[in-house]
Amino acid sequence: MPRFDERAELAPRDIVARAIDHEIKRLGLDYVHLDISHKPPEFVRTHFPTIYARLLDLDIDITKEPIPVVPAQHYTCGGVVIDLDGRTDLPGLYAAGEVTESGLHGANRLASNSLLECFVFGEAAARHIRAHWDELPAPPPIRPWDESRVTNSDEEVIVQHNWKEIRRFMWDYVGIVRTTKRLERAQHRIDLLAKEVDEYYGHFRVTPDLIELRNLLEVARLVVRSALHRKESRGLHYTLDFPDMLPQAIDTVLAP
User: Fold this and answer.
1) Which end of the chain is more exposed for a tag (fewer CB within 10 A), N or C?
2) Residue intervals in the chain for CATH 1.20.58.100
């Protein structure tokens, strides 16, 4: 790590993740090692009791040996725009936590601030709802559901395959280190899958997995559109084509 940042493992999360990703790809590894065995065993057990116990179940004693690690998904930094009461621009819809863009995150993810945001904006939303309950609009009427022209699917494997494909290309093309070309490839795959899913949705009965697949595609589309729109690198939003940070931070806000 000192080759990448003088703060080593204490560098911001995006720098550490990119360093791990770089070494894994450079050396063809499955993982790298995180070593805390230089600390006294009691320190490790008291400061990291959950991790210590979980890894013991996997026959890894972190007081004596290193931990194999790989970069995981960065938790969402950005999302649905809200105000200080947790209100979105859709009347009656509130949001709190990692789904939102409240402005508290910045362009990186610090440990546990997502939990704090859930508490802060969850309480703010609850207070506003309680104070304005009588003013909230009634839910819109739901049209009767018509299943007369659809059948049960006998090809559920298609849904599962597309689900896995989204995860794979989003990790490969829209992962820790991005390029415009990779993002455009991901966008192309999303467009093709969206056509397949729309056709599937129109012919077969709706299932929770199918709805989840449509949601995954929509989130993937928004992430890629936002990444293509950003012409800089800031925090975990890193692209090789625009590695420098612009002098002024400008939100990437997408509208329908």
Assistant:
1) C
2) 149-256
How big is the chain, counted in residues? Answer: 256
CA pair distance 162, 189, nearest whole angstrom: 10
Closest to 213 (Cα-Cα) out of 134, 160, 136: 160
pLDDT of residue 10: 86
Q: Mean pLDDT per segment of 10 residues, for the chain of length 256 residues?
A: 90 88 90 92 94 94 94 72 93 89 75 80 96 90 81 77 91 90 96 89 81 92 92 90 91 77
Is the CB of residue 205 less than 8 Å from the CB of residue 147?
Answer: yes
What residues form DSSP beta bridges with 87? 94
What is the rounded distance in angstroms from the CA atom of residue 220 to the CA atom of residue 186?
Answer: 9
Task: Give the whole-angstrom CA distance, residue 178 versus residue 1.
Answer: 21
The CATH number of domain 8-69 is 3.90.700.10: yes
Cite the active site residues: 13
Q: Name 80's bridge partners.
A: 100
Delimiting residues of CATH 3.90.700.10 domain(s) in the chain: 8-69
Question: How far apart (Å, rounded) are the C-alpha atoms in residues 232 and 238?
Answer: 8
Q: Round to whole Å and give the CA distance between 7 and 178.
A: 24
Q: Are 29 and 15 in contact (CB under 8 A)?
A: no
Tokens representing 3?
């080759």
- DSSP 3-state percent helix, strand, coil across the chain (nearest 5): 45, 5, 45
* CATH architecture, domain defined by 149-256: Up-down Bundle (1.20)
94 burial level (CB within 10 Å; 0-12, 13-18, 19+): buried
